[in-house]
Amino acid sequence: MAATTLPPRDTADTSLAEVAVEFPENFLLIELCGEFDRNLADLEQKLSVQILRRGNHLVAMGEKPAADEAVKVLRALYARLEAGRPVGPADIDRELRMPGAAERPDRASRDGSQMEMFKGGPVEIKTRKKLVEPRTEAQKAYVRNLFQHEMAFGIGPAGTGKTYLAVAVGVSMFIDGLVDKIILSRPAVEAGEKLGYLPGDMKDKVDPYMQPLYDALNDFLPGKQLAKMLEEKVIEIAPLAFMRGRTLSNAFVVLDEAQNATTMQMKMFLTRLGEGSRMVITGDRSQIDLPRGMPSGLHDAERLLGGIDKISFNYFTAKDVVRHPLVAAIIEAYEADEAK
């Protein structure tokens, strides 16, 4: 049963308003408020309103535009809970930045095949540990292209979900039997610091560079299963230099931090694509760690391959950042400074 908004009540100060909304399902209302009402507190802080709970009603008090917006966000988040999806701080931030993002998807299509997302159904990725939802329109378009194209590029700033979503799609396609293995790679380039020689064998030396890929996999696969898949080489995580001479067939292949690949490395990697494989290249043009004067292979790939229909290019901005809201503000500040 949907939430019901009650008429606003006049207050002594005509610039202020009280807007009440009823949520009939008490257990969903508890989830909407969050532990210790932290979701309400978050919304109060961001909109400069006060939200009171009166039985099954929430009342937003403040300047009328802000109170109306608070109620609109609460209704959207409640609809999300009705659809069986969780609500957290990231969902509140997303709804404030992109109104309508949390609207309830069609229940009938939730358990359908991946083709539902190409028919206007919800865009979601099923993994062994959780259901992954792209949160912005750019992310949804990116995920659709990952399923539809044999080669896809995701380009944009840190925190926009480029690698995370690519790895999630790779795990989903492996679970569905569409690929036989997952190969994740990055250039082993230090981010502005010379760390010197690292101790240990080859795996010990390269693992620090690959840690973000391990982190993503741990989100989608149970620990024991992931360890077994790594041991059996069903999942491979390797530096870009290790790709030379291979033909990658029936595999889902991700090249992360592609802005740090040289032109020759990028050409070498792209030409590894074999029968039945998918290849995803992600990168951030603002974080190139190559030696000064050395061109980025990602830039050349954009220039040379942009006109090939079967290769998709998806671009992200600070508006697509799904980490802490401050990350988006930081990125926008740096972009504004560079534009001067």
Shape: globular
Q: How would you describe the oligomerization state of the chains in this entry?
A: single chain
Radius of gyration: 23 Å
When the domains are counted, the total is 2
Strand order of the largest sheet: 10-9-11-12-8-13
Mean pLDDT: 82
Q: What is the CATH T-level topology of the largest domain?
A: Rossmann fold
CATH superfamily of the largest domain: P-loop containing nucleotide triphosphate hydrolases
Please outline the major beta sheet.
6 strands, parallel
> In terms of structural class, how would the helical and strand content be classed?
alpha/beta
How many beta-strand elements? 13
By DSSP (H or I, 4+ residues per run), the number of helices equals 11
Layout of strands and helices, then pairs:
Blueprint: E1 4-5, E2 9-10, E3 16-22, H1 26-33, H2 38-47, E4 50-54, E5 57-63, H3 64-82, H4 89-97, E6 125-126, E7 131-132, H5 137-148, E8 151-155, H6 162-175, E9 181-186, H7 202-220, H8 223-231, E10 235-239, E11 251-255, H9 263-270, E12 278-283, H10 297-305, E13 311-315, H11 325-339
Parallel strand pairs: 8-12, 8-13, 9-10, 9-11, 11-12
Antiparallel strand pairs: 1-3, 2-3, 3-5, 4-5, 6-7
Helix pairs in contact: 1-3, 3-4, 5-6, 6-7, 9-10
